């Protein structure tokens, strides 16, 4: 959100929220460009009615791995979860493809090399606590991408 912009000033939206409808016009299933056009068309309105679904950007994951002989059931590249084994312990724990791992067992891995992330995960047994967020959101929040304000 743009600092000081109408969305930020309202205090009603949070980063990661999903806008389902604007002024009773559903945005569900519409292409991003169409949604952006609808929002741009509301620039001169004093009041806008939004229907949102709160989606906090950080997801907490709990993987229960009783022994090293059990595969975690996901692949990771540069901290981003690339694939997930259907029915595996990672899927049951809430791991999501396309999410960036930001923390493992209370330790930040934001600036950690790929090999060290893989090593930390490979050697973990018992309850593995991870925090993740959508990779696109991570890139925006860390300045790797520039947001397009509408």
Return residue spans where pLDDT drops below 50 for at least 5 consecutive residues: none
Mean pLDDT: 89
Question: What does the largest sheet look like?
Answer: 4 strands, antiparallel
Alpha carbon gap, first and last residue: 10 Å
Helix content class: 10-25%
Shape: elongated
Please identify, by name, the CATH architecture of the largest domain.
Answer: Roll
Instruction: Count the beta strands.
Output: 9
Number of helices: 5
Q: Under CATH, the topology of the largest domain is which?
A: Pdz3 Domain
Compute the gyration radius: what is it? 19 Å
CATH C-level category of the largest domain: Mainly Beta
Structural class: alpha+beta
CATH superfamily of the largest domain: PDZ domain
* Number of structurally distinct domains: 2
Order of helices and strands: HEEHEEEEHEEHEH
Percent of residues in beta strands: 25-35%
As laid out across the biggest beta sheet, the strand order is: 4-9-7-8
């Amino acid at each position: 959100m743009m600092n000081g912009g109408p969305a930020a000033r309202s205090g009603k939206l949070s980063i990661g929220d999903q806008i389902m409808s604007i002024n009773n016009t559903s945005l569900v299933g519409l292409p991003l460009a169409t949604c952006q056009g609808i929002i741009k068309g509301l620039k001169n309105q004093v009041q806008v009615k939004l229907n949102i679904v709160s989606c906090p950007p950080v997801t907490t994951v709990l993987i229960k791995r009783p022994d090293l002989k059990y595969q975690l059931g996901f692949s990771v590249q540069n901290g981003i979860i690339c694939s997930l084994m259907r029915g595996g312990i990672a899927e049951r724990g809430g791991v999501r493809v396309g999410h960036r791992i930001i923390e493992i067992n209370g330790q930040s891995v934001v600036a950690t090399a790929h090999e060290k992330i893989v090593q930390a995960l490979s050697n973990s047994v018992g309850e593995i606590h991870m925090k993740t967020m959508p990779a696109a959101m991570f890139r925006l929040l860390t300045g790797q991408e520039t947001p397009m304000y509408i």
